[in-house]
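Show me any protein, fold above all:
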Amino acid sequence: MVYFVKNAVPGDIVKAKVKRKRKNHIECEIEELLIQSPHRVKPDCSYFGICGGCSWQHLDYDEQLKWKKQHVADAFTRLAKIDFGSIEDTLPSPKIFQYRNKMEFSFGNSRWLTKEEISSGKEIKHKDFALGLHIPGRFDKVLDIDVCHIQNDYCNTLLSRIRQKALDLNIEAYDSRKNAGFLRNLIIRTSVANNAIMAILITNIIVSESEKAFINWYDNEFGKEESRLTVFGRAINDTRSPVATEKPVILKGEDYITENILGIDFKISPYSFFQTNSKQLNNFIEEIISRANLNSENIVWDLYCGTGSITLPASKKCRQITGIEFFKSSVEDAILNAECNSIENAKFICADLHDRQIPEVLKTLPKPDVIIIDPPRAGIHANLAKHLLDIQADRIVYVSCNPATQARDCGILSEKYHVKSIKPVDMFPHTFHVESIVVLE
């Protein structure tokens, strides 16, 4: 039986308390730390262990990289049970703090109270207002956060200013159970290439004078010339859905910020998907393209291409590349990004690669020399894997943020392919998440 001990570090000796018994494992928590591991470090964040975001922050960064590599290796040896040529060391992130280019914070009328607050015996203020992150597994509880170390310093200042004004005016935060309350979310995006910052405030419909006063303050405060916000705006979400879909009203700047990947400019709109670690992004894409080993005569497919973050830089190295993506808005963004960068040898198609029937469009495309795949966490559909086996491209570069499903799919493809190399890449320091680039030939 395997025992999982929450917040323990390899090398710790602990007294552990059983919390839950499952069919194949037992979940525990530390009751007493008897001997500390040499790899244990003091977390920078005061919310460590509560927020749930940076769950490895108490582990030395070199050890984080080692265990991410082990995580990928275990997926191939234990789950897929296939041989692989080599697994390289994990590519470290240039920065391990202030690396995220997007954070989405929530307002909530039920603030998460820490054990220290509850046991202090002191009066607890502002129990009905929080601006921060949801507690894992609790849609109704929000941890109030002053400083998040993985985002830009100015963004922390922005959080504090908005929180204080809302408290001063006694503005209600959102109640997810009643679908009531004015303030809902704050989206903050940053661009490394242009040192740009975007903020989008998401609220319910204005119904009171105090809410109107808050919006007037927000509009005037961040619309000033000296404001560090390059783009700021507002959107309304009066539905029960936690995801805002209404196009925001932009009050300053354009409706996008621009990031650059290997010389290609990408327009990033408020809600669009983009890799969250801009500091590591060039290294990551460069690794993918380098391992694809492209030449000027190659025909390439980029499956699950998103907005073209791999497709467009790869287009410089090949004769023709086709990106295929399910989400229409992403395809539209990819086409626009190609036009803005005067790239003519890349085309984009909207199709569902998870369809039980292989999209007809794949059957009409010229046979590729190289296929790049970057699917969602669930991996690729079995029918697509079979189609890839039928096509027999010389090389497949499989990129994934989930080594388990990546290993499973490579096991299917091993009918005709062998794994030549595996390169883990750390896009998410202080978390167990890891990107993995696998080359199949």
User: Anything to note?
Assistant: The first strand starts at residue 2 and ends at 6. Residues 102-261 form a domain with the OB fold (Dihydrolipoamide Acetyltransferase, E2P) fold (CATH 2.40.50.1070). The mean pLDDT is 93.
